[in-house]
Amino acid sequence: MSGRHHAIVVGLALCVTATVAGAQRSRADTSVVLAKGKPVAQVEISVRDSLRDSVGVRVREVVVGTTDRLGRYAVDADSGAVLVYRLAEHEPREIQVGGRKVLRDPKDSTKVRVIPDTTMMYRYPVLASTGIGIMIVSLLLVWLGTAWCYKRILSTPQEERAPSGFGP
Amino acid sequence: MAEHKEEWGSRLGVILAVAGSAVGLGNFLRFPGQAAANGGGAFLIPYFCALFLLGIPIGWAEWTMGRYGGKKGLHGAPMVMGAVGKGSLARYLGVLGVLIPLGVSTYYVFIETWTFAYFLKYLTGGIGIVQGTPITEQTAAAGQFYTSITGAGADGSLFTGDSRYTVLSWVVVFVINIFFVFRGLSKGIEKFVSFAMPVMAVCALIVLARVLTLGTPNPDFPERNVVNGLGYMWSPDFGALTNFKTWLAAAGQIFFSLSVGFGVIINYASYMKKEDDVALSGLTASATNELFEVGFGGMITLTAALVFLGVSGTAGAVATGTFGLGFNTLPVVFAQMGAFENIIGATWFFMLWLAAITSSLSMYAPAVAHLKEATGWSQLKSTGVIALIGTIGAILTLWFTKGGGFWSTVDFWVGTYLIFLLAMVQIIYFGWVFGIDRGWRELHQGAAIRVPSIFKVVMKYIAPAYLIIVFVGFTVTELAGELKKSWASTGARVGVLTILVILIYLVVVTRIGERRLRAAGVDIDDTNPIDGGSDR
């Protein structure tokens, strides 16, 4: 192995470190982390567009329920308040909205807090710009990559062979 | 040696055969579930890292080792590994390259049978879901059909009442498999995959077109639309990247999806000619697999589920795992498509069946090749013995169905754990025993492309290190629980016993082969390397 190859290995290691560090910073800035625990409810809530835009939340549905998945989320109470939960040390509060159990802070709709005993799954069903970007890049990679490979294969001359095998 | 020299009819044939082996149910069902549960679009970052640092390099190593073994007239994974690793240790480790596909085939054909049975049912009127009834009732009907087809309720239930349908379907599917395996490479497997792969792509395109044109089918739930469905799969949660399990899941998905560490590629590549390209062929087979996985699997399954079932329904479906999503949830989704239900259902399950059979064909071929090579038996006799082993394994699978005790145990040990182990063995032997410079030269002999030299570093250092980390992580997180499960039921215990019996049989066959080939003067330890053997 040459010195150049060792340099490449070190470079790759630095890239991985930077990626992980970047992801951690992203999580600290914007994510909500919910502790593992028992499910409390299962709901679907829509966030009105105007409210969503005002707080920069792109969430239309939230599932509270069956997994220990961690992540950011936001909910829309019937009152119109939008809650954005982030890392903090506060207790959760459960309320009923339209007969469904929802977690919210009635005093401050944008208060930052954590829900320690809740298992919650969030999902951004809206195809946000980052998601579109990842989807397009991934699809281009696999479609164009495959097309390039087959073009090269089919354009390379190859000797014809009689089929071998058993039976007629 | 075999009485009949086999080889591929065309370069495209071997590529499609390897791609067909790789493309299976996991591409359409496991991948989207794994992605959704591990960061959505963000999952694609560790996924593509694993593809370029693990999947493709190990694949290239397998293609190269296989063709090298073929040059010496060796075709079974044990003998090829023995030549590459220069001795008996590598040869007996190479037994895993036959044990894995043969062990997996015992239950994989059973699952393949489900897809075939679903396909036939959709073709003849559906699986019993009544359109217009509440979703809970439809889900119950889908669950009832699933239980009757899989026999998940009780051991032996498949041999009673309506469930016999599964056994009959298995007979048909198994006979088709054995027929094409017996016919050999170019007249059997190659001919079948040359038809099946394009048809599978057309079926996937039909289903994809239908899913992407669903719009917003229920005005009462405007948020349940195609765009949001795509968002469910693709919108990223970058926080997941800090979780080791996400990286583990991505590496696992690449592994199980690409069929590396499976023993199939080595066997298939051994039938190539010495100047045939392996670099571009390996890359093309991997690319084809990714097309089906990301291009189709990532666009169809969860999008369709969310459009009809919403976030909670889709999340619940993902939580039920690959089979719950594919065989319980999607039939309910198809039932919401009105007049299209049976057409889309039949197309979907026919596509899954093609995906499954192109994989299962590749599971028998390495075992037949090893048997022929080691014992000198004919194609007919070797295929017959493998068919007998397959039948015994299938009877056990069909009987011990309660909770999937038998097949889930075999799946973990043979279809998951040993794959990691064999891949590690292969890449370490390739980079450190065969020699990376020698391997690099061998890879480029007759190559239609020049592989970037960074991959030399990847194949010698990064892939083995990455693999060891993944293997240790997998062992730490999964092994204790799986050990308990493997002794928890009769089916599971029989599964462990079956693996051991097959392993012993294959070791004995390998020992016989060693003696026989040495006596025949075959250079099974590569004492006279074709290329001189220098790693310079």
Key terms:
heterodimer; A: 168 residues; alpha+beta; two-stranded antiparallel sheet; B: 536 residues; mainly alpha; 19 helices; 75% helix; globular
Strand content of chain A: 5-15%
N-to-C series of helices and strands of chain A: HHEEEEEEH
User: Order of SSEs of chain B, N→C?
Assistant: HHHHHHHHHHHHHHHHHHH
Q: Which value, in Å, is the CA radius of gyration of chain A? A: 25 Å
Number of strands of chain B: 0
Provide the structure class of chain A. alpha+beta
- Tell me, rounded to a whole number, the average pLDDT of chain A: 48
- Going by helix content, strand content and strand pairing, the class of chain B is mainly alpha
What's the pLDDT, averaged over the residues of chain B?
A: 91
> What is the helix fraction of residues of chain B, given as a range?
over 70%
Q: List low-pLDDT spans of chain A.
A: 18-124
Q: Give the end-to-end Cα distance of chain A, rounded to a whole number of Å.
A: 52 Å
Distance between the termini of chain B: 33 Å
Count of alpha and pi helical runs of chain A: 3
Largest sheet of chain B: none
**Subunit organisation of the chains:** heterodimer
Largest interface: A-B, 63 and 76 residues
Number of E strands of chain A? 6
Structure summarized in a few sentences:
The complex is a heterodimer of chains A (168) and B (536). Chain A has 168 residues and is of the alpha+beta class. Helices cover 37% and strands 11% of the residues of chain A.
Q: How would you describe the overall organization of this protein?
A:
- The complex is a heterodimer of chains A (168) and B (536).
- Chain A has three helices and six strands, in the order H-H-E-E-E-E-E-E-H.
- The N and C termini of chain A lie far apart (52 Å).
- Chain A is elongated.
- A two-stranded antiparallel ribbon of chain A has the order 1-6. A two-stranded antiparallel sheet of chain A has the order 2-3. A two-stranded antiparallel sheet of chain A has the order 4-5.
- The model of chain A is unreliable at 18-124 (pLDDT under 50).
- Helices cover 37% and strands 11% of the residues of chain A.
- With 536 residues, chain B is mainly α.
- Chain B is 75% helix and 0% strand.
